Structure formats: C-alpha cells, structure tokens
Amino acid sequence: MVGVSPKIAPSMLSSDFANLAAEAKRMIDLGANWLHMDIMSLRKHTNAYLDCHLMVTNPMDYVEQMGKAGASGFTFHIEVAQDNWQELVRKIKSAGMRPGVALKPGTPVEQVFPLVEGATPVEMVLVMTVEPGFGGQKFMPTMMDKVQALRQKYPTLDIEVDGGLGPSTIDAAAAAGANCIVAGSSVFGAPEPGNVISLLRASVEKASLTT
C-alpha cells in the first residue's frame, strides 16, 4: 500500500468513561495515531486527531457543533446521506474537518464510489466489520472483499475498518488494504495495550510492503 500510512485508532467506546482524559493520554503515549470517537469530545484534554464516527440519521445537524467541539474527522453513514452527501461533505470541510463516509455490513461498497470520486470527495472510507452501535462484536471477514475493492480502485485512499479488530484479525484487514484500524476491546482490555497498538501498526506496515 505505497502512498498510505498506518493509523491505529483505539476506540474510546471501550475506554474507562470515568477517566477519559487519562485514557486518551495513555493511548497516545502508547503509540496510537488517532483516537476513534463515537460522538463525544475530548478536545480540551488532548491534541490528538479525533476521528469521529457519527451513527446518526441527520449528520448535517451535527456538523457545526462537532466542528466547534474540536472534531478532526467527521465520518457519516452513506445509508442516511444518499441525497445530500455533496452538500454535507462541503459543509464538513468548511467547518475545518476531514470528511469520511461509513458503510454498514449490508451496504454494497459501490454506493461510496461516487463520494470518493466527486468534485469535493470524502477523504476516508470506513468499512464496518460489525453491525454498528456497540463494542465487543465478532469481526466479519467477508467485509474484507469491500476493503480489497476499495484499495484496488483507490491506491492512496485512507481505508478504515471498525469492529472486532485485534491481534487475531488484523492481518486479514491489513492484507485486504485497510490502513486505518479502529480497535476497542482488544486494546483497552489488553494487559499491555501498547504492545497491541504496536502489533496492529506492524501488520499494516508489513502488508504495505507486499502490495
């Protein structure tokens, strides 16, 4: 995957909510690139890139407030933005955030192609490898076909995977072409989270050398 870099994004959904500031600092100190957020803000506690995934029906309504709250990336679902994604992407960019689009397991990958190829394109595609909404689910390996299709079509695109990622599943995701890895339980639940972050990054880096 020449042209893209590995970005390991521990999911704050699996962190200790009573100690978010400390958890954010701990993950960055342990080597994480991004912190994956599910509509919550840590901006006053960290300078990290805040990778925000909005599982909402009206993402347009959240752009302004997410921008003001300090979100770095704003990822919306294609399933709720079929008719207004061009306006939504423009609004996200004008608010100073990086636009991304997510798709659920049942959504054909072809639905996001126009968003990557548009005049004002998204800059990341998030392939959900579980049904969105809660942590701890099992990784769906069949979703790697979507990742592979995206990587073959868009060699320099940031492709993120979210759901069930950890030491036992990272190699499949990395080999398919994913370079942005959201990991929740496997990082926060590990005795040595830093070792897991390093392992995830190493897998993406190794795959990038063989593609």
Automatic annotation (TrEMBL):
It comes from Capsella rubella. The keyword Metal-binding applies. InterPro entries: Aldolase_TIM, Ribul_P_3_epim-like, RibuloseP-bd_barrel. Keywords: Isomerase, Metal-binding. This is Ribulose-phosphate 3-epimerase. GO terms for molecular function: metal ion binding; racemase and epimerase activity, acting on carbohydrates and derivatives. The keyword Metal-binding applies. Gene3D superfamilies: Aldolase class I. NCBIfam families: PRK05581.1-4 (NF004076). Pfam families: Ribul_P_3_epim.
